[in-house]
Amino acid sequence: MPTIKIPDSKLVKEIAEFVRDTETELLFNHSSRVYMFGALAGAHRGLNFDRELLYAGAMFHDLGLMAAYSSPHERFEVDGANAAKAFLSGRGIAPQDIDLVWTAIALHTTPGIPKHMHPIVALVIAGVEMDVLGLTYDEYTAIERDTVVKAFPRTPHFKEDIIQAFYEGIKHKPETTFGNVKADVLADKDPHFHRGNFCSVIRCSHWSG
């Protein structure tokens, strides 16, 4: 197993403290596993990446689900990205590095694109896809999986718990799920939810013809 450790730096400790104080234990452990699985994916792929920036992206990626950081009308991904930007900007991180973290968080529910981008962007979604969706489950050894989960445990019913956490974080602004995977969460939890339709938007526009 590649040696994957959480960086022992002042920035990482500040991020961990902030997120632990802000998020639920469910989301804190999930985000920590996203970092671990993302870093392992980077090692598997032979990528060079800044572990502090990956940690920032992983740990802030679901912060927008928390009421204190949830805006009325932005996607929760954007809320998390904005929170990370504000946090990192106050600690002297280079603007281009902040932009990488922002992009990684904003795109972490948009499959098919991040894998072609900078390693920080690609590896945040890689961690998410492993921990939530299990899409790359077999690309990790049993030892790797067990080691990560031992360090940051999954709840006994994590699948349903994380879906509920998604729902609680976005149910007040269903319009922000148009065209993205979180519409599936609302459709699963809310019998009155009507998802937006791309073709209907086209047909109902003010354009003639």
Give the amount of beta strand, in percent.
Answer: under 5%
Order of helices and strands: HHHHHHHHHH
Rg on CA atoms, Å: 17 Å
Helix fraction bin: 55-70%
Structural class, from helix and strand content?
mainly alpha
Ends: how far apart? 60 Å
Q: What is the makeup of the main sheet?
A: none
The beta-strand count equals 0
Mean pLDDT: 96
**Total helical elements:** 10
Q: What low-confidence regions span 5 or more consecutive residues with pLDDT below 50?
A: none
Identify the quaternary structure here: single chain
Query: What best-fitting shape do the alpha-carbon axes yield?
Result: globular
Topology readout:
Blueprint lengths: L9 H13 L2 H21 L5 H10 L15 H14 L5 H12 L12 H15 L8 H10 L6 H13 L11 H8 L8 H6 L6
Structure description:
The protein is an all-alpha fold and 209 residues long. Helices cover 58% and strands 0% of the residues. The chain has ten helices and no strands. It has helices at 10-22, 25-45, 51-60, 76-89, 95-106, 119-133, 142-151, 158-170, 182-189, 198-203. α1 (10-22) packs parallel to α3, α4 packs antiparallel against α5 and α5 runs parallel beside α6 (119-133). It is globular. It starts with 9 loop residues before the first helix and ends in a 6-residue tail after the last helix.
List descriptors.
single chain, mainly alpha, 209 residues
Summarize this structure briefly.
The protein is mainly alpha-helical and 209 residues long. The chain has helices at residues 10-22, 25-45, 51-60, 76-89, 95-106, 119-133, 142-151, 158-170, 182-189, 198-203.
